[in-house]
Amino acid sequence: MKQEPKYQIEVVAPEHRHMSNWDMFATWIGANANNGTWYVGGVLAACGLLTALKVIIASSTLSYLCLSLVGFMGYKTGASTMSLIRGSFGVRGSYVPSFVNLTIYIGWTAVNTFIAATSVSYLLHDIIGWPIYGQPGGAKGLIMGVIVMSILHFLSVSVGQRSVQIVERIGIILVIAFVLWESVVVFKTVTFPQLFAWHAPIKLHMTAGAGMDTLAAFNLAWVIAGADFTKRSGSTKMPFLGAFTGVFWFAFIGLAATISIAITSGTYDPNNSDPSTIASRLGLGVLALLVIILTSMTANAVNLLAAGSALSNIFPKIRLRPALWAVTLIATLVTLIPLVIGSFLAAFTAFLDYIGMVLGPMITVMLVDYYWRHHQNYDVNELASSQGQYWYSHGINWIALACWVLGVIIYLLLKHIPFVADILGATFIDMVIVGFLYMGLMRIFYPMKTKSA
């Protein structure tokens, strides 16, 4: 039966999948080996070193198991994550998660761009004497940094997915060298016993549960791009190993550097957890600021490609390259929001709260539908059909949307239970509850037909 063109999807045939296992590993380690991860590590310093390390290991392991599962879906089908999500939410219903995906990746692009722009403001201070961002008149240096980074992003996305591989291959070497360098500087300043003994002031202390939710929001954002960059046989282990290595390494360095500065200065301020401030206080110099800018490009190459894919799914008539230009422009404008509200940390925290609410339930529905309901077998052609099994009711699986909304509500309720909020975090408990809800409701309203003998 002829498909309606507006619902068509792109499927990458096996012979056209050029990313090697090393490329996948480098892509995912590079996605996390960046200034955003560094900043998250600095925020987690409020938990204390030991608790923060436990949070990083536990939350990242659970999150990147989900990444591996979505990566396997990409390997099996050759389709993008936002195309595959049609199987659970419906062909038209997928517009909702696509919009969520779009906002999240634009948001992460803005976060990384803002931090990199702060580095540019430090460079402009060193070169021509402009005030550093945070000082009177420092906003002009930051705005110039946003413009510079946006130009670099436009150049990157204009090349397409190939640019991700090029940037990652060059950037990963410099990133690893930089992390080793910073590690040496940090541990020349303080010892491990000093790091373990330090605790944040009570009024700034973060509980383990809050840390779990903070890092889960950070990590799960990559899951919804899992199928886009993992279409080879290493699609399960390489994303997990790369993403986990990147997040643990860089979050730990951000964590240790923030605590070391708090110890040596006698003052802890979570607002000063950004990489540019840390690099400046550690005396790492201009080269460190240039690497921070580079790591922003490596992360945002992935962010922008994922956002462009989501925009193309919502508006199928928009081809990928114009979609990439559009999301890059929107991200540039969003980057300026912290200037309006007066605090990057406040904007960043609100953004993570939003991700935590919407992403966990959405990922759960997608995984349960593919692995439990369809037993790892989607008919890719029907993902683009208005006559197929993924059309549900007028193109929408209302059960999936209802479970997603319930998941948001359950997440908010769980945050008010002290044991959950302080110890376990709400994100993964919410995902388990939503998984069982979706399984039960789909059994009732959409029972799978059994094949006759």
From TrEMBL:
<feature type="transmembrane region" description="Helical">
    <location>
        <begin position="105"/>
        <end position="125"/>
    </location>
</feature>
<comment type="similarity">
    <text>Belongs to the purine-cytosine permease (2.A.39) family.</text>
</comment>
<keyword id="KW-0812">Transmembrane</keyword>
<dbReference type="InterPro" id="IPR030191">
    <property type="entry name" value="CodB"/>
</dbReference>
<dbReference type="Pfam" id="PF02133">
    <property type="entry name" value="Transp_cyt_pur"/>
</dbReference>
<feature type="transmembrane region" description="Helical">
    <location>
        <begin position="419"/>
        <end position="441"/>
    </location>
</feature>
<keyword id="KW-0813">Transport</keyword>
<feature type="transmembrane region" description="Helical">
    <location>
        <begin position="169"/>
        <end position="187"/>
    </location>
</feature>
<feature type="transmembrane region" description="Helical">
    <location>
        <begin position="64"/>
        <end position="85"/>
    </location>
</feature>
<dbReference type="InterPro" id="IPR001248">
    <property type="entry name" value="Pur-cyt_permease"/>
</dbReference>
<dbReference type="InterPro" id="IPR026030">
    <property type="entry name" value="Pur-cyt_permease_Fcy2/21/22"/>
</dbReference>
<feature type="transmembrane region" description="Helical">
    <location>
        <begin position="392"/>
        <end position="413"/>
    </location>
</feature>
<keyword id="KW-1133">Transmembrane helix</keyword>
<feature type="transmembrane region" description="Helical">
    <location>
        <begin position="240"/>
        <end position="263"/>
    </location>
</feature>
<feature type="transmembrane region" description="Helical">
    <location>
        <begin position="137"/>
        <end position="157"/>
    </location>
</feature>
<feature type="transmembrane region" description="Helical">
    <location>
        <begin position="323"/>
        <end position="348"/>
    </location>
</feature>
<feature type="transmembrane region" description="Helical">
    <location>
        <begin position="38"/>
        <end position="57"/>
    </location>
</feature>
<keyword id="KW-0472">Membrane</keyword>
<feature type="transmembrane region" description="Helical">
    <location>
        <begin position="354"/>
        <end position="372"/>
    </location>
</feature>
<protein>
    <submittedName>
        <fullName>Cytosine permease</fullName>
    </submittedName>
</protein>
<feature type="transmembrane region" description="Helical">
    <location>
        <begin position="283"/>
        <end position="311"/>
    </location>
</feature>
